[in-house]
Amino acid sequence: MKDKFFKSGECWVWFNAGAIAIALVMVIGLVLLIAARGLSHFWPSEITIYEVQLEDGSKQLSMGEEYGEELPKGGDPIADKQILLKVGNRELYGLDFRWLKNKNVVKTELATDVVVIERREWGNFYGFLEQVEFDGQVFTQNDEDVLLAKMHEAIDRANELHEKARDLEKDDIGAINYDLEELRLERRRLELKDEDTPEVLAEIASQEKELREKFEVVQAELFKLHEQAKRDTVSLVTIDDKRVNIVAENIVMAFKPNEMSFLQKLGHYFLKAGEFVSDEPREANTEGGVFPAIFGTVLMVLLMSVMVTPFGVVAAVYLHEYAKQGFLTRLIRIAVNNLAGVPSIVYGVFGLGFFVYFLGGSIDDLFYPEAKPAPTFGTSGLMWASITLALLTLPVVIVSTEEGLSRIPKSIREGSLALGATKIETLWRTVLPMASPAMMTGLILAIARAAGEVAPLMLVGVVKLAPTLPLDANAPFLHLDRKFMHLGFHIYDVGFQSPNVEAARPLVYATAFLLVLVIILLNISAIKIRNRLREKFKSLEN
Amino acid sequence: MNDLSREFESVKDKVRGLLDKQTSSGHHTFRRSKDLLAKYGIAFGGVSVIIAVVMIFFYLLYVVFPIFKSAEIEPKQEYTYQLDSTLMWGTEEYGEIAYQLNSNGDFIFFDTANGNVIENYSLELEPGESVTQVKYANREENLLVAGLSSGRILLLKQEFKLSYPNGERVITPNVLYPFGTEGIELQDVPVTAIAAAKNGETLSIVTADTEDKLTYITFSIQESFLSDEVTLEEDNRQEIESEIAVDYLLHDPTATWVYVISSQGELHSYWVEDSELISNERTSLVGSTVSVTDVEMLVGGISLIVGDSTGQISQWFPVRDENNTYRLNNIRNFEFSDSPVKDIYPEIRRKGFVALSQANELGLFYATSHRLALLEKIEGLADSAKVIINPRANFLMISSDSGVQTWQVENEHPDLSWSALWGKVWYESYPEPTYTWQSSASTTDFEAKFSLVPLSFGTLKAAFYAMLFAMPLAICGAIFTAYFMAPQMRSMVKPSVEIMEALPTVILGFLAGLWLAPLMEMNLPGVFLILILMPVLIVSFGYFWHRLPAEFTGRVPPGWQAALLIPLIIFGTWLCFELSYPVEKLLFDGDMPHWLDAEMGISYDQRNSMVVGIAMGFAVIPTIFSIAEDAIFSVPKHLSNGSLALGASQWQTLVRVVLPTASPGIFSAVMIGLGRAVGETMIVLMATGNTPIMEANIFEGMRTLSANIAVEMPESEVGSSHYRVLFLAGFVLFVFTFVFNTLAENIRHRLRRKYGSL
Lengths: 542, 758
Known about the structure:
A: 15 helices, B: MetI-like fold, 5-stranded antiparallel beta sheet
């Protein structure tokens, strides 16, 4: 028995089984890890109070969310264990986090009545509600329900005003600034062409004046809104009895996690998840949402698809249907195939050198002399990023389309030709429709690759924080020269370049989960389409 | 028979009639032209896409190419101009205006295009006084010190004012006396040699007189609060009798060294401490029969460039030896000419210099790259010819026979050469030749270090550890999946692996850097336990399973072993991590990284090669797996069936029949995997410290070519040497992966053809 197991080599079979099992565990584990960390970020965690005996005998109270535990190297598991507590209240403590020595903890209890305030600045605040000043009236703890209701009312009102102010800032003031900039460029353009007659200049000046007046009006309105939003304040007391007044304008939301029911928590969860995908980032990208990054990624990928599909399909059709099959075509095919294996950073280098500096620089010289020395297309931006990625994913589309074309039985082509159709008619009416799932697969794979690619984008277009979206209401609406934000780069930037990595980490996990989700879905659909395609042609071949 | 052929004829006629009708209606022509149009359109589109792809290669090459171009010079003008009694001459930034200072005190600025004098300032000399030597005290501020025959020192400042009337550049030269016209009274005998350095708010001057007495004076520069006036306040004055003849006297810009050199090649160096000269070393720069013909300092003042009578130029700089004293070392020698070196003039921004030999050969040199970028014999020069170059190093002037020759210089990248990129280079202030990558620093006279060796080493190191992790897992996994696995499970495993391949590397890198690296540091013994325990655990589980009664094992169909192992692996990993702490406590004093450092002398970085190996291995596994699995799976079934029928066990069949047949495919899988590992950027960028070191230690990080591009490319100046070296790195990556992939692809094709015949 024993001999046979080792002699027949069955032990090696188990080794091999182990290898694939390890690989599977790693993939599944990784996806689950990201999912668990990313998804748990939005769940309102409970607030605990820790009573700690300090070295000098005095006691210190800390309140916050438990974030994790750590055992210092070489420490004893019980005596030296440390607890990482997110205590928030950055303006008071300096840091959001506090390490507590487990052995010093005298007592832990769930805090009652604690309010978590999510703020636009300074991070979270944990404290007990003391009083609310609403419309000049002061509400105190005497009537707790009214107090809470008033706080929420104040926050809702401030949020509404804040929203209005933001719309004004983004849309109206943004548009005015854009127009002003356009006028400045117009004047410079005329100057360069020596067409700057006094009449035209006067015309521009009057337009400018008009815009500036409009700007004054909008700005006054904006000030008023901000002034109004500052009306109410909420006063809280921290666990160590410090009183803090928070202006309602600075509050995103307030909630009491320890008093929430499961359903309420679920509601809060989806609210936060929604905010994550639809809001703009706050506090140097460490809080808030990732909407601009999602938007930038999607727009860039869309532009890339528009470019890569026709070129990839035409190249594949040429290689497979028109080019003389010989040594050269084989060489080209191998070359195209191998381009898929060329490191993406090389495409980035090429994109930066050729597209940005060479093409972009030339375009600026020819068409945008008025903006000089500030570059228009001569700097990295949306257009160059999408072209670079189109080049990067071109081999994927070509290879996939060619594979689809070669799967179509010869008989079908010959049948069509025998019926008198020309070659292009055969292609257009029979071959291409049949190969369309293959093209689709190629495109999906290309999108999946492009969505996750970061290295070349770091050279040709992404930024950590773009002030404006590349698509807006100002003509020509789509601004190809603008820089944009990207989910993948967001992960790199927030995870590695952020000043407050600890606080940003859950957000990075959430972003990573979002990206992984999108890419897995895209890939699964590509696999499904490909399998269906194979089945379909199997029946044709027989 | 006849009927049939008649019918055929009539059908033929009918069809022909229909076709003719179509032709005459124009529809046919339309269709034909459409077909033609499509043909040419698609051909054009296809070819242009292919050209675009090929262009990547050629564009990279086009940017890289200037690195390897040697310098070129082109004659511009030649005109008569008197430069006989000139003590010093040069040009400003752009090479438009030249200046000369004659011993009679005439400071002349002239147009380099035609020799027309623009301004002639006469220095404020006493009657009978003449200038004996003049040197720069500070090159950036154009501050000069002039030693006079009366023993007085004058401080001068050149000024080139730029203005742009009508959009054209106009340069107005001027001479100023920033510390007054009376100068510094030093002694009664003439100053024969002088050198000075202005470093911040201190000025130090060293002079020699006819008796070879050295005088070292330091001043602090006082700025008046009320006016812009600046005055010098003498801090210290020291007099030393020089032991050797003072033919060359040099003082470096940071005011730490004074070198005295005689024309016999003796050198005496002094070290400055507390404003006093302290004798440091006496040595000889040349052989006994050779004499020194010119000595200059390279920009930054660390290196001495010595030309001698044999036509050799040598570079020297002080290096700290074992006794912690500085000794002047001969760093490298340039074989220049057969005739003596006549004149050396250093470049002002780079570590390069121009030299002229007695036979009137002109050489453009670069110190760091040990490169002679150009060697050309110049005709029509006098014996006393001298050479200068402008600060931008693109304009050269040579004093010829009673005149001046001007030359346009094209010498963009002398700092790069094969040996500078790939060889050991002895950089200034380094104790020995090293492979170093350090592309930029905060100072202007910085010597850029462009050795691609540490980056290539890092790339290969990262790829090696990644392959070490990925290869066994991927190939073994592929063997099992292709050969043993139940089809149902295979149809689930393959998509999972494809998803593994699609995972963005930025996510892998982020997890590796922020999750895996700290986790591994905390549980380092656990990680090694997994390496040891996991195989044992797997095999013993297999053995245990093998011994179980058949009615129990029979419930699991064959080919599902991998699924059985999944819980075991999870349990094993958990167990190892649980054991990590006690093991660490027991064997490594509770801190394995610290133990490694203290006991084994292995330093431990949190983000190290092991982390990179695992993360990048993760990225490479699916690539290798898919191709290898494909190769094994497509081995014809009748081969393995034959072997099994002859009584071989499954494993024997696999090892003796299937694997040999599939081995080229597996090899190509490994090559493609390696290509991917070499070019991967984000994982390395995020999971290592990105320090360009040359250590094979698994617990230290590295910097790879690709990560280096990602880090430095956005900051590099377009067209600079740095920019082109980064392109070269990209080009190297491109060629490397392209060659590897083509090779792998070829092998795979050959394999497929071979199976086709089976």
